[in-house]
């Protein structure tokens, strides 16, 4: 009999016991014989298994769970091509700081080098894009290895981990120490560096806060609001920082970012890297305060005026408690509000455009009418999804998913699966370019078969928009940038067990979207958009 301090069973049962202890609640996978014991353990205990048609979708689904629920997401992949097919998902999770654990099968160690089926050493491939990667050598090591991997994944700066289990290890019986309760360390910030940041922001005449995904991932949304309100600083957001302040909040801004960044004297970037989305941290004469969740996230290519590193809740709460001299930012905020309102008026005209072919802006104008405040919107595309960053304004935190700085297409169906598992009763809407549809649309079958309804809106302009127009401008011609015009992506989803329709006129958009959200199955609205209407590369999706 197993004691409270010991557990026994085959490798799958030992792994699942440790996974449960760390809050994992479901498994995303594509069936493979190397990992059958994990399926056996899950099946016998009622642990949900959700399967996909391509391994990258399993990892993206696990990442969506990790992002939305701020807990580990699990993908189980078979050996060899199962793992290599999942590496794009692992890499996205690495760039996004998402605590995903991928467990891979592995050819048997006792026969290593003899040419077993799918025999390859995964670790050199995954180590550069994970926080922790290991091969487990015996059954009794499995719970401890799972605990170590998940602790690494959950420790700031968060990110993915990988374990592979050789065939004889996962199939054999063993007993091992039961997993202890998770003990994730909290990174304490340097109080002097926090005080320096607070003084710079409070004493600035024209300060700005830009809040990114780690604010949500670190459960620091309330602390961000408190800091912004106490210091009276306008807030712009990117990634999963979107919705941290609702659009109606007096300090929430989105449309006037260019104006703000050109005029600000102090820019506090919180929980997001100083990468291409933020001019690599070069804001002219403005001083930069870079607030990150771990020292490893400090920018190495610029020297901020202050760079507190640690738990974002602690840092932001300390900013709110700052008792030094504070400037009155009312005039600065009022000037930004004028620019914001003017931009909103321009956007409203574009979102109401009656043109045929349909302009992408009109698609988002109609979506704004039907999306609930707590709807989860998912961006998977380039040109078409760039418009989403401009025209959609998430009203609640944790309701926006995009590929992040790695920019990997194909996230859509996996993210949709993870979002639907997370929120069975909310609207889930995937915004997909017709190029991106080629990466993952087959997994509409996975959604339909497992009763996971989502709405998929495809902006179908028949081109790779972010490539065709720039290439033509550079060379006077373009190649490898055209797709079949007016392709019936809705017909693909119908054939896979869902439903859908094609929309060619702006006046048809509203009724089509209403039908989609009422359908109760995966439903694709295939919108024929104007190929001449391309979004500039300086996207507000950032």
Automatic annotation (TrEMBL):
GO cellular component, one term: acetolactate synthase complex
Domain annotation Thiamine pyrophosphate enzyme TPP-binding: ranges: 380-527
InterPro entries: DHS-like_NAD/FAD-binding_dom (IPR029035), THDP-binding (IPR029061), Thiamin_PyroP_enz_cen_dom (IPR012000), Thiamin_PyroP_enz_TPP-bd_dom (IPR012001), TPP_enz (IPR045229), TPP_enzyme_TPP-bd (IPR011766)
GO molecular function list: acetolactate synthase activity; flavin adenine dinucleotide binding; magnesium ion binding; thiamine pyrophosphate binding
GO biological processes: isoleucine biosynthetic process; L-valine biosynthetic process
Lineage top rank: taxon: Bacteria
Pfam families: TPP_enzyme_C, TPP_enzyme_M, TPP_enzyme_N
Annotated family: Belongs to the TPP enzyme family.
Protein name: Acetolactate synthase
Name of the encoding gene: ilvG
